[in-house]
Amino acid sequence: MKNIILTGDRPTGNLHLGHYVGSLKSRIELQEKGDYEKYYIMIADTQALTDNAKNTDKVRNNLIQVAIDYLSAGIDPNKVCIFIQSQVPELFELTAYFMNLVSVSRLQRNPTIKEEIKQRGFSNTLPIGFLNYPVSQAADILAFHANVIPVGEDQLPMIEQTNEIVRAFNNTFGNVFDEVKALLPKNKVCARLPGLDGKIKMSKSAGNAIYLCDDEKTVKEKIMSAYTDPNHIKISDPGKIEGNIVFAYLDAFATEKHFEKYLPEYRNLKELKSHYQKGGLGDVKVKLFLNNIINELLTPIREKRKELEQNVDYVYELLFKGSENAREIAGQTLNIVRDAIGLNYQKLLNKK
Ligand code: ATP
Ligand code: MG
Q: What was the pLDDT predicted at 123?
């Protein structure tokens, strides 16, 4: 079976380094490898509304921002169908059928949902739509018969939920869907890049991110403020690597080439870490090294972004065209699903 790839992001803010290492980088690698039949990237605006119902401007404005981030980072619209979730209403019909196959308590046990409910302060105000978004996400994936889903670690419970729905649907209505597979980054720290505060994962909604569109000055300020080891006060003090965000980012981004170019007195990260742990290496030196690496990555992305910002209509047109294509495929799946469930009333008419 050839691969059908689907992945996406919520338009709740610009994309950040967590998106880059967690998903965007492997999306671009998959695109370049070309080993797929179809490849979709969805901007999940309807999902974003589930915790932004009164903040519709935020979602509306960030749609184009996320699309520009994709194209600036190297997603090629000739190879990938980029579409807008809300413009494919077939997804919501499919969600409605799936909702009957999942219990409320199952959704309440989803660990990512649990953490996000806490983070957003939902207690008695939890919207049904928010609790239900894993079901809607299953519809997004299965409407396209996607089987490869490049995601960060926080999405694993959603993939598990999708596969439960596949089994429940097939058991109830006959074999229509195949199980799907998450594609996680190999490097553990990339699957859940921590935020600058060192507390939770880097996230648009938590205000702890370095964005792909941040300018050089902002990136430097953010890196200089990143959480390190609070007990590493004097340069001569031994420092801790565990929980040290700057080293987590180096784990995710630093290569030996970076050492050659920016910090030749060390050969690799192992040597740098060991000096830090022994004492005698200051945070500022490590942070400036990280700053060079991140700016090297972001400079070409920023330049491409500038061009695209002059041509926003072109980006919207791409999204509209992508959404039309997506509607056609999702519509075909829905015909099969309605048939399987028995909602094919036209057939009854033809019998008479
Ligand atoms: P929000 O706070 O609005 O939920 P987010 O920053 O979590 O936004 P999403 O749009 O929910 O971003 O996630 C899009 C994709 O990026 C998902 O595949 C998710 O797993 C991945 N991702 C998000 N944050 C990280 C991170 N810190 N590390 C690795 N992958 C991440
Ligand atoms: Mg998220």
A: 85
